[in-house]
Amino acid sequence: MKTALITGATSGIGKATAELLANQGYRIIVCGRRKDVLEQVKKELSKLTETFSLNFDVRNLAEVENAISSLPENWKNIDVLINNAGNAHGLEPLSEGKTDDWDAMIDGNVKGLLYVSKMIIPGMKERKSGHIVNISSVAARQTYANGVVYCASKRAVDVISEGMRLELTEFGIKVTNIQPGAVETDFSKIRFKGDEERAKTVYAGYEPLKAEDIADAIAYCVNAPSHVTISDLTIYPSAQSEPRTIHRKV
């Protein structure tokens, strides 16, 4: 039975992926910052498969190192790492942006991914097997005004994924970079500081992707035959033609 470690597993894409892989027979390590929610997710998943939880913030290197190092011996061999934790904060031009927002995005989307990966990769290299899935965004493909730092952080994920592939393929480790378009999760609510009405406008007038759609794509990639690597996968809702353009009915 393979073991998958998923960051940002308490909601959205991370939780949907944990549920799907659990149903497919994976053992699951769910990771998240909100301890109460994390334990509830663990309880739900435990009805489907063996489940372990790690409570840490990917932005904090010491927490990452302590949490992953604390895994019991029978949970240390990670077959699949899904770097899903990330965030967007604010939608202002650079001249009006808040540096705390910039730090949160760069620390979570870039440095957090690196911190977790650095802890898991040595074991995969030693075993000469593994699969790393990084969740980027279509924002990496086309920068948009008022989202410069977020776009930059996701472009970094693309570059890191490419670099991982160059460094790890010889060790039998697959690397997949997934770029979702508009997905209806808590993403926009977080970006707009809890303003639910403003967040709803992001998904108005068309059918956005669901977290389960991205989970399906992740499962397809990690379950591909051993000789197949899905290196990059871009997923749009049918109403979205490119990162900045969504065709709405109203």
**Alpha carbon gyration radius:** 17 Å
Low-confidence region ranges: none
The CATH architecture assignment turns out to be: 3-Layer(aba) Sandwich
What CATH calls the topology is: Rossmann fold
CATH superfamily: NAD(P)-binding Rossmann-like Domain
Biggest β-sheet, characterized?
A: 7 strands, parallel
Strand order of the largest sheet: 3-2-1-4-5-6-7
Strand content of the residues, in percent? 15-25%
> What helical percentage do the residues reach?
40-55%
Structural class from helices and strands?
A: alpha/beta
CATH class division:
Alpha Beta
* Average predicted confidence as pLDDT: 95
The tally of helices reads 8
- Indicate the overall shape: globular
The tally of structural domains comes to 1
Helices and strands in order:
Layout: E1 3-6, H1 12-23, E2 27-32, H2 35-45, E3 51-55, H3 61-69, E4 80-83, H4 99-127, E5 130-135, H5 148-168, E6 173-180, H6 187-191, H7 196-202, H8 211-222, E7 232-235, E8 240-242, E9 245-246
Parallel strand pairs: 1-2, 1-4, 2-3, 4-5, 5-6, 6-7
Antiparallel strand pairs: 8-9
Helix pairs in contact: 1-8, 3-4, 4-5
